[in-house]
Amino acid sequence: xxxxxxxxxxxxxxxxxxxxxxxxxxxxxxxxxxxxxxxxxxxxxxxxxxxxxxxxxxxxxxxxxxxxxxxxxxxx
Length: 76
Description:
The chain is mainly α. It has helices spanning about 20-35, 45, 60-70. The mean pLDDT is about 80.
């Protein structure tokens, strides 16, 4: 058996302004809802060998988008 872990692409929400303690919750919420930066792609040649594997992803938008890009298929 083989388990492969892949990190998601760079999130569009990857900005790190100074925030207050009360503003931190809002920042985390926005970060968690962000997709990935356009053009932030992995080495796709390397990903082709995992085409027929079972894919498990977090339900965070950036993780689902990364899985869809890496495996060129709709993730449900």
